[in-house]
Write a structure and sequence with these properties.
The protein is 57% helix and 2% strand. The N and C termini lie far apart (70 Å). The protein is mainly alpha-helical.
Length: 496
Amino acid sequence: MADSAVLSAQPDFPPLPEYQLAPLPQLISPLPDKFLILLLPFAAYWGLSMLFHWIDTMDLFPQYRLHTPAEVSKRNRVSRWEVVRDVLIQQAIQTVVGILLGIYEPDDTYGKESYDIAVWTRRIRVAQRVVPRILSLFGVNPKGLAENLAPSYPMLSGAIRGGQYPPLNSIITNGDGQLKSDPSFAAWEVLAASAIYWYIIPVLQFGLGILIVDTWQYFLHRAMHMNKWLYNTFHSRHHRLYVPYAYGALYNHPVEGFILDTLGASIGYKVTRMNTRQAMWFFTGLTLKTVDDHCGYSLPWDPIQYLSSNNAGYHDVHHQSWGIKTNFSQPCSVFWDWLLGTMWTGGDVSARYEHSRIAAQKKVDKENEPVTVTRSDASQSLIQDLRPYENELSNSTYLQSIPPIHQQPAAPVGKAEFQAAGSRQQVLDDKKGGGIDVLKNESREEKDARTVLKRSTRRRATNSVSQADSFKGLRGRIAGSIHGRTGGILGMESSR
């Protein structure tokens, strides 16, 4: 009886392993990791930007461009030098914030991994204690079931017992001559704990970090469009780029750049408690995503554009004068646009993009058919809830004084009409980078593009097969880009 009492008094878990912390070796010696975390986003930004700039200057893939080179110089309201200057200012601010974060962050160490995995293994063992109770709720006798399974499936039997694995325990004699049971963990428990520690927790950290950044940027970005003072004071600077290009991704007012980008990413990093190595991936990945979203291309082999439907094609709509008050979500998902009804719902935008295609396509083959860009279901404009655009028509006082001829293209009746009115009013309110001239130019280009589309109808009917093989249809490429690998409409499908 005394021996039994000694055995029953022993804990259910093996003792936690001892550990000794040591400084984590630098990833790239002799550069400290806290310096590398500042360098990598900078290098990623300019490396990817210069790749797209080289593609631009060499005119390598004109069939995948969202806009022509001529549009960059004609429609944008800011010089490239001003763009580079303001991007460098924002990156300097990011660097200062990164240095401050690094000062108060402890240096990374290693040596505790086995201890942490053992802690998770204990948690898995404790969690198994509820298994018999759950089985009992469904009328199953856990003790009898465990006994029946024990000969063939001892580990499953132990889990059903609530984490009791007698075969894994050994009876030993301690220094006092007393018998004690020396427990150990099942191999599956150690494997599960290792998966949690090395894979599941980091994935959850990244997922939560992305959710925080997306949420932060959506609501601040939307506020800067809905509030006239915020837009005219800060955000209108970014929209001087009506035709985005890669290294203009961080072209912002310094205050906006700090609040919207730097602070949002820093909050995501701190809340999720990422270590320095994880933060390298996090910050660098967000940087690459932002550059790619402004690259001006819908490349079918671009992996970043297949990760999310929030990509270059989707965000390009937001930079146009007719869609500037839609598609606010960035940088990773379209969730908030979808949930709150701020996706573009204006139907076919082929004619809007047609004038952008003409100049580039002439360099390749004058006989190629005009390529449409994307199509959305205009019927959605009639049935979708007007929120948050229900007041846009009444608030567009300046727009009402503009002749209809300068308000082309006409938007479908319904939600798209309200979206277009708010977007155009915002362009008119931007005296420095927008104004009536922007609407006049686009109306004239719209008319020219529709004329070209009308002339090309007969040619499309006779050459559809060869031209489809040649161009694959920019509409399909953008739609596929926007929705991963599925068909769709500039940011939405009719089922959404």
